[in-house]
Amino acid sequence: MKEESDRIKEAVERYGISLEKLEAEQKKLAKNIVLKDSINFSLADRVAGIENIYFQNKIVSAVVVFSSGEILEQEYFEDKLRFPYIPGFLAYRDLPSMVQAFNMLDDKPDVVFIKGHGVLHPRNLGIASHFSLTTGVPAIGVADSLIVGEIKGDGIFFNNKLAGRVLKTKEGANPIYISPGNLISVNSAVSLVKKFTIYPHKIPEPLRLARKYGKDVLGEIFSREI
After folding, report:
1. What single DSSP character describes residue 189?
2. In whole angstroms, what is the distance from residue 35 CA to residue 59 CA?
3. Nearest of 166, 164, 178, 173 to residue 201 by alpha carbon
4. Distance between CA atoms of 195 and 130, rounded to whole angstroms?
């Protein structure tokens, strides 16, 4: 724990970061989050997943758009990492390249699955929420672990409000934690995760495909640099 604290302190000093200012910004942005369905998500068909891959001091953000069992579009953006990894501030490292990759798409999807949290965040502004507020597109956070919240049944409560759900998508595997980012309700977020998770996989297909695409891109980059 002390090693992690020392690492964060060193990174903050090296990059000249004011975590207090960023926390204030997150709290201000979080006031704009809407956890109501912006469209009829039962009709959502054009969905996307975004995955970030890191190597050396670079990031590759890969986005895949999926519909009716087929990949419609895929794009990626490669950039230098300009912000350190600090828990609770992931968007400040990853969001710029994610938005760049997303803006390269010809047609925007109905909703985006993002690895990470939505409102299940200390200041209610996980990377899925920050992404949605930036792009105006509904987003869902799909995470492997919790950083805040109390589990009651399959519900995850934060600040005495239902903020997400625990979902077991694969027998023998750990559950995933779903939280809406913005412009979508908890129940619709969970329904879409169930709808687009294809056996025997654990995560929604657009997110799985984005991860695969990102790894393929990374392989091409390494080949190019050899």
Report:
1. H
2. 30
3. 173
4. 24
Judge whether 141 and 114 are in contact, CB under 8 Å: yes
Q: CB within 8 A of 83, min separation 6: which ones? A: 15, 17, 89, 92, 93
CA distance to 20, 25, 131, 165, 170, per residue, from 140 (Å): 26, 21, 10, 12, 19
Residue 109 contacts residue 89 (beta carbons within 8 Å): no
Count of positions (residues) in the chain: 226
DSSP letter for 38, please. S
Q: 42 φ, ψ to 5°?
A: -70, -20
What is the token pair recorded at 172? 């023998």
Residue 225 confidence (pLDDT): 63
| Residue in this structure with the two tokens 């920050």, named with its chain if needed | 130
Q: Where are the domains of the chain?
A: 2-225
SS3 state of residue 2: helix
Beta bridge partners of 83: none
Q: What is the mean pLDDT for each group of 10 consecutive residues in the chain (226 residues)? A: 86 94 98 98 97 94 96 97 95 98 97 98 98 98 98 97 96 96 98 96 97 94 70
Q: Where would I find the H helices in 104-204? A: 127-135, 186-196
Cis peptide before 109 (omega within 30 of 0): no
For residue 52, the cross-strand partners are 61
Per CATH, the architecture of 2-225 is what?
Answer: 2-Layer Sandwich (3.30)
170 phi and psi, to 5 degrees?
Answer: -150, 130
State pTM to two decimals. 0.96
In degrees and rounded to multiples of 5, residue 48 shows phi and psi of -130, 160
